[in-house]
TrEMBL record:
One Pfam family named in its UniProt record: PROPPIN
Chain residue ranges for the region called Disordered: 1-60
Protein name as catalogued: Autophagy-related protein 18a
Subcellular location: Preautophagosomal structure membrane
A GO cellular component entry from the record: phagophore assembly site membrane
Similarity annotation: Belongs to the WD repeat PROPPIN family.
UniProt biased composition (Pro residues): 7-19
Record's bilayer topology term: Peripheral membrane protein
PANTHER family tied to this protein: WD-REPEAT PROTEIN INTERACTING WITH PHOSPHOINOSIDES WIPI -RELATED (PTHR11227)
Length: 418
């Protein structure tokens, strides 16, 4: 194991008690580890412009936003690519002689990316997490497991790895195992972590159907929330981890809970018919929640549960969603004044804004860097940047559309043949 001369990240848990476990092992080479927050992703020296390739673009295997939603990574059949969201452009790509990457998780805007092999010819075993340093175009560490890796979540100080029925939490500085959690079977790899440096909050499925487990590491406590009667299908934490949004396999209602006490704070309705929820995303201020599903519509809901929202935004949100408000773009609001008279279906809180997409394709959503903008990534290669009107609501305005697989990088980058 390599010796680390100067720690790249502060360790908020300086005296961990690692658990030894035969389910996992790790190796590490941090000699060339970059600082956690460089100005931006570094690029290798530009090569001469590549000749146009007659071959079709590789298949997409996975898409994931980085922690501040400013960038996203695409895992493909022959490597991975990194993109900037606003303005949209491909920053760089790495190709592995046809070796596939099933997951690519960025660490903010640094050179560190966690890779998991995937596709018909995986570049790495699907039961390993490879820590890739793009500054030197090679892996500097790896974590091995007995089961296939379902998801990876990164913070400056932690690596969280999800397998079918376990979650492992590692110290990023030395890859020491700090904690492991048993879960109900979790084939989607559901897991969310907070991103503020002063505390770590992790949310995942519990051991029972419909249950959410929340780990408050700074308080050394676990909170169990009975969120749904059906299995949990999707979860998302706010940046500070104080709120969690959950959806079940039924997909009609989304619930927002306080993670500290497990209190249900708000419930919003996506629709009346069963749907598969693909992603949930809070805005940075937790004023808005975006939801995507297999019905082909992205919804944006107004939230009234975060006391840290500036007062002028609160008053605007309140005036836009008053109990007696009737909006032509959202006629369901006219039923709110009849609470207690009409069935619960009509009493539900409906979305403020919507954007319609092709039904059946898998879409992931996040809020953009500009106010009232939403980024939508599709597994069909689509990239949308849309804007919603918080006052009028209704259909969002499309600002940008791109096919991410047809984009060209800023400067031609050499492939990595390893």
């Amino acid at each position: 194991m390599a010796t680390l001369s100067s720690p790249p990240w502060p360790d908020p848990n300086p005296n961990p008690t690692p658990n030894s476990n035969p389910d996992q092992s790790q190796t590490l080479d941090f000699d060339s580890l970059m600082p956690p927050h460089p100005q931006f992703l570094s690029h290798s020296a530009a090569a001469s412009s590549p000749e146009p390739s007659p071959t079709p673009p590789p298949s997409l295997l996975h898409l994931s936003f980085n922690q501040d939603h400013a960038c996203f990574a695409a895992a493909v059949e022959n490597g991975f690519r990194v993109y900037l969201c606003d303005p949209f452009r491909e920053l760089f790509r790495r190709e592995f002689d046809g070796g596939g990457v099933g997951h690519a998780e960025m660490l903010f805007r640094s050179n560190i990316i966690a890779l998991v092999g995937g596709g018909s010819q995986p570049q790495y075993p699907p039961n390993k997490v490879m820590i890739w340093d793009d500054h030197i175009s090679r892996c500097i560490g790896e974590l091995s497991f007995r089961a296939a890796v379902r998801a990876v979540r990164l913070r400056n100080d932690r690596i969280v790895v999800v397998v079918e029925q376990k979650i492992f939490v590692y110290n990023f500085m030395d890859l020491k195992l700090l904690h492991q959690i048993e879960t109900i079977p979790n084939p989607k790899g559901l897991c969310s972590v907070s991103q503020l440096s002063d505390s770590l909050i992790l949310a995942c499925p519990g051991l029972h159907k419909g249950q959410i487990r929340v780990e408050h590491y700074s308080q050394k406590k676990s909170k169990f929330i009975s969120a749904h009667d059906s299995k949990v299908a999707c979860i998302a934490l706010t940046l500070d981890g104080q709120l969690i949004a959950t959806a079940s396999t039924k997909g009609t209602l989304i619930r927002i809970f306080d993670t500290n006490h497990g209190t249900l704070l708000q419930e919003v309705r996506r629709g009346a018919n069963v749907a598969e929820i693909y992603s949930l995303a809070f805005s940075s201020t937790a004023q808005w929640l975006a939801v995507s599903s297999d019905k082909g519509t992205v919804h944006v809901f107004s939230l009234k549960v975060n006391s840290s929202i500036p007062e002028h935004e609160k008053s605007q949100s309140s005036s836009n969603s008053g109990a007696a408000a009737i909006s032509p773009s959202n006629p369901t609001r006219s039923f709110i004044k009849f609470k207690g008279v009409l069935p619960k279906y009509f009493n539900s809180e409906w979305s403020v804004a919507q954007f319609r997409l092709r039904e059946g394709s898998h879409y992931t959503v996040a809020f953009g860097q500009q106010n009232n903008t939403v980024i939508i990534l599709g597994m069909d290669g689509s990239f949308y940047r849309c804007q919603f009107d918080p006052g009028q609501g209704g259909q969002m305005t499309q600002l940008e559309y791109h096919n991410i697989l047809m984009a060209e990088p800023e400067a031609a980058q050499p492939s990595v043949n390893r």
